Every structure is written in C-alpha cells, then in structure tokens.
User: Fold Amine oxidase from Pseudopithomyces chartarum.
Amino acid sequence: MTSRDGYCWTKKDGLKAGVPTIGLINPPTNVTDENVNYDVVVIGAGYCGLTAARNAALEGLRVLLLEGRDRIGGRSWSTNLDGYPYEMGGTWVHWGQSNTWREMMRYEMEKDVEESADFSRGYNQFELNSPAVTASMSHEEEDELLISATKKFANVDGVFGRKVIPLPHDTFRTEEAKALDRLSAKDRIDQIAAELTPKELAVLEPFILLFSGSTLEKTSFHEYMHWWAMCGYRYEGCLDMLITWKFRRGQSSFAIRFFEEAVATKRFSYAFNSAVKLVKDTGAGVEITVASGKKYRAARAISAIPLNVLREVTWDPPLPKGKVAAASVGNVNQTIKVHAEISDKDLRSWTGITWPHNELIYAIGDGTTPAGNTHVVCFGGDHKHMHPEENIEKTKRAVENMFLPKDKKPEIERLVFHNWTKDEFAKGAWFFSPPGLLADHLDDMRARHGNVVFANSDWALGWRSFIDGAIEEGTRAALEVRKELDPFNQSKSSL
Assistant:
C-alpha cells in the first residue's frame, strides 16, 4: 500500500511522489458512530501517540486516535522498495534506550535487528573533503580523529561533562548546565579554537550538525551535551547507541505492533486523514474538530503534536504564554536525509564528510540491496538547505559530491527521501533546540493545559527527540489520564 508521503527517483521511472509502507492504515477509520463520548482522544500516531493510545486502551479506557497522515509512525517510518527497507526518519535503536528495548522485548523483536556498518569488505575507508583538509583514511584513524575532537569539545569541567550534567534525565540539576544552554555550538568551538587542529575542526563541525540538523549558531551546546551524556560521555558511546542497530524490516515493522495491540483491545477507535484544527476545552471535557468538520468528544485529550506544529492548531482557551513562546522559537532541526542506491558494492564499508560546501555533509554505507548495490544514506541540514524533490539533478550532484574526486562519478540507481521541512505535521525532523529554549521553556512545553495533556519526544527528559523519548512521553501521558479517569484509583485516593 502506497502512502502519499515520501519520494522515489529511479533512472527508469524518474521522480515519483508517494512510497509504499506497511504503516499505511486501510481502511483509514473504524469509527462508525461520531457521537461516542470517549475517555481520551489521542492526537498524533507517532510512537508517542501510539504508546499513549495502546496503554490507555489496555488499561480499560475508550480511546480514539486521530492522525492527519494516512499512516502511523510520525517522524519514524520506513518504506520497502524491491524488497529493501529505507528509513525515512528515525532509524536506530539500542538496548541503552531502555523504553524502546523494553517494547522490542514485549513484541519479541530483539532478534529483528542488524548492524548498519560493515567494514569487513570493500573500500574500508573514510573520506574527508573540506577546503582546509582533503584526506582518505582508515576507520580507525577516523575514530581517533573524532575521539580527540569531541573530547575537547565536551570537556567543560575536566571530566567531559560528568560534573556539569551528572544525571542526564535531569540536565538542569546544576547551575553550570543552565549556562551551557545559553551557548551555541559555534560559541563553544570559538572557546576551544586554539586547541583544535584543522582536521579536528573539519570533522567536528559536521559531526555536531549530524545531531542538530541546523547551523552551528542555532545549535544549543547544552542539548549536544545532553546527547553526549546519554551516550556515556564518550564518542564511542555515540557511535554505539545512535547509529549501529536498526530493524531488518524497517521501523514501520515495529510501530505496527503498537497499533495492532491497541486494535485488539476492542476499546480503540481511529481516524486517519483527520488533521486536527480545533481543540476546545469545555471544562467537563474536550471537543476536537478535524479538517473535514467532524467533531469528537472525550473527557481528556493527549496531544502528541510536535512543537513546530502546535501553532497550526486553534486552542480554546488559548495556550499559556510560555507554551506559545516555546512554539514560536521551535525545533531548529531541518535535516535532509537522502538514501542512494549506488552500483558499487565496495561502498558498503565507506563513510564520508563533505563540508561545508555541499548540501549533504555526512554519509555512510548502510546496507546491500537485493540487486547487489550499496545503500548509502546521506545527511544534510540547515546550513545549505535544499528541497530534494524540487531539483533532482541538484540532489544527485549533492550525493556525488560526497565522494572524493575519482575517475568516474558513482552510478546512482535510486534515490529515496522524505521532505521533513515541508511536512505539515512535522515542520522539521527530530527535535533539537536552539540556545536558551530548554532553560527557558522546558517546563512550559511539558505542562498540561486544562483537560489536555501534552506529550511528545520533543520535550522528553531522557532520550529527547528519539523513539525512546516518544515512548517515555506516551507512557507518562497515558498513566496520568488513567489515574484521573479510573474509578478504582479515584475512590482509593479519597480514602
């Protein structure tokens, strides 16, 4: 089944909009009576909304899930083309992301993962292409270079951040950590500029932007340090936890399990292609109006809407000033993620950085397609932003430019991508904050508003912006609502 999301280009067919995914839901709704009064309406079918809806239904509540897309997964979904999965958004999982791994164990999917990197064959090299440095080196040399650079960048306290952020799930425990959120990544690089070699600087800057998908000036140094702390305060932990393990059949093979379990409760209703336009808190409950004009009612609502989309919904009564201010600043991540199928099997063990003169800055060999070609995944950001579908020849050149000059250009057989910037239900990729946003507004983002609970990975406390953070937030929201609506708990609390 083909979603309206995503793009695919091939030599034979050219550029086509819409790609197949097992996350597409058909029929798009199972609602037969629009006059039902639900216990809770969940807005958004990403991992946060799926977790909240499933948990609430399992615990006995009558649940309605509303989603503007035709599919589940939100910013983490996969397509399967000619027997090979391409991850359009969030990709990697790890047992260090405990919420995610718990759910994988729940669905007996712990063996359904494979490693992205395979340095056992092929070129087995890292290419660095920048105005200051052009070099080809081994992956061991690549790691040594990045270990040195990232340690200098993170060493704000003599112990690589362990003193300033001793507890990654409570990053503002120290006053020093709050000060870090006033700095940009560019500010921090300027502080240590004399310590960095040209090679270290050439790899450090794109490595940071691989996290934020923004510019160095708009990247919060604190949020980088939060990721760093979650990864064990070391570069090796970043590699291990952030870019190693992925699902063999794609993220949508995981997300569909949440949805199917919710359906099996018989207390779960859903309506896709139902973009929410108005959320009205009546005092006794909520009334939600979607784009078609249909209205749904419930005692509570859980909004799993990303930060950058909150302003696209009308809230009655209006959202508090702090939440509005946070949404006005927003998530700065405008990552460009382009998959390329290239007819060179030796690229399987290749990685490269081309910075800052190219739209795509970081790329890795990520798999071998059934045709025997190499799948290379490329990342760009806001520094030289492009819309890949608007000029496919420009996009192909950006992929070709990732490789050091060779006798011939790589032969691109296929390009696959999703434009997250133009996505009306995301307006950007995974969350990353600009300086000051979290210090000023993290509590505002997390706060409820009357009968509406706000839950999203954008303001999770642990793996913020990750699938794990989405599951964390969905679990929290469902529990909060269930405690309020469950008669047993209400009577117990009055004793």
